[in-house]
Write a structure and sequence with these properties.
This protein has three helices and 16 strands. By secondary structure, it is of the alpha+beta class. The strands form two sheets. Strands 1, 2, 4, 5, 7, 12, 13, 14 and 16 form a nine-stranded antiparallel beta sheet that branches. The protein has a seven-stranded antiparallel beta sheet with strand order 3-6-15-8-9-10-11, with no helix packed on it.
Length: 292
């Protein structure tokens, strides 16, 4: 004989909602990284010195994909130092090394990575972040993304982010009008990119933030967006400096499917806040009943 189910009391509902919402709030919307290169200098990763030819395996980076020089006579080197970014909501450790692009004679160099979710014509949302320090506001110096393993400005370049692209720190994407992301400074800055890719490339968007405010619900506020952006797969990360541009230092290149993946920042889902509010409202009702 089946027993009748007892109705839940308001107190039980409230406590259940509160517990569920707190559990969700304590959990970031974190998925597996698609690619990461933190330029670590321990025994299993990079060796301090010339980066060209080095190819330590990490998520999204095969040991068959080495750093290669595109052009110019500058040096690309792995350093034991690392960039430091002061934001308590950015919790990705940058200790253990960085990559330095010295600009004497100009240079461009890059390394291939898994760009399967950054292929044009599909439906996907991808986040990317990088710590970057630029030594000068002169000339051209930038973080770049390419396709096809080459570095030709018109044939391979997909995205440029840095000095000499537009005013201040500029963003250029696949021939679309350049936009300004932020102002130049000689310190360490965090850049976050969000790629929204659609079967119709004219609907693709790339949103960029310089030093975004982290820790809120959903994407950071602000940012600039370029539409109609991606018409080719992104599968190479690079940096360049020409025309009297300064040095470029990069650290913590991360690619994932959520903002939390690439910043380490807890991003509460809107449903979590709704449940939290529901639990709180129920507890208020209970308290008022006791006082009545």
């Amino acid at each position: 004989m089946k027993q009748a189910l007892l109705p839940l009391s308001l107190r039980q509902v409230a406590l259940g909602c509160a517990f569920t919402s707190l559990t969700l709030l304590a959990t970031t919307a974190k998925a597996t990284l698609i690619a990461e290169d933190q330029y670590l200098t321990d025994s299993a990763d990079y060796t301090v010195g010339d980066a060209i030819g080095q190819s330590p395996a990490s998520t999204g980076f095969s040991d068959s994909n080495a750093w290669v020089s595109g052009s110019g006579g500058g040096t690309v080197s792995i350093q034991s130092t690392s960039l430091t970014y002061a934001d308590p909501n950015y919790t990705i450790s940058s200790a253990g090394g960085d990559i330095f692009f010295g600009t004497t004679g100009g240079l461009r160099a890059g390394r291939g990575f898994d760009g399967s979710l950054l292929a044009a014509g599909q439906t996907s949302t991808v986040y990317m972040s990088v710590l970057m320090q630029l030594s000068s506001s002169d000339g051209y110096s930038a973080f770049e993304l390419d396709n096809g393993g080459g570095f030709d400005d018109s044939g391979n370049r997909v995205l440029q982010l840095g000095v000499g692209v537009s005013g201040g720190i500029g963003l250029g994407v696949n021939g679309q009008p350049d936009v300004t992301v932020g102002t130049y400074n000689s310190g360490v800055n965090l850049y976050v990119l969000k790629f929204t890719i659609n079967p119709d490339a004219s609907l693709d968007t790339v949103t960029a933030w310089e030093d975004p405010t982290l820790g809120g619900v959903g994407d950071p506020t602000g940012g600039v967006t370029v539409t109609g952006a991606l018409q080719s797969t992104i599968d190479t990360v690079s940096a360049a400096s020409f025309n009297g541009g300064g040095d470029v230092t990069l650290d913590n290149f991360l690619v994932g499917t959520t903002l939390a993946d690439v910043t380490g920042s807890a991003v509460p889902e809107p449903t979590s806040w709704s449940l939290f509010g529901l639990g709180g409202l129920a507890l208020i009702v209970i308290a008022r009943r006791k006082l009545a």
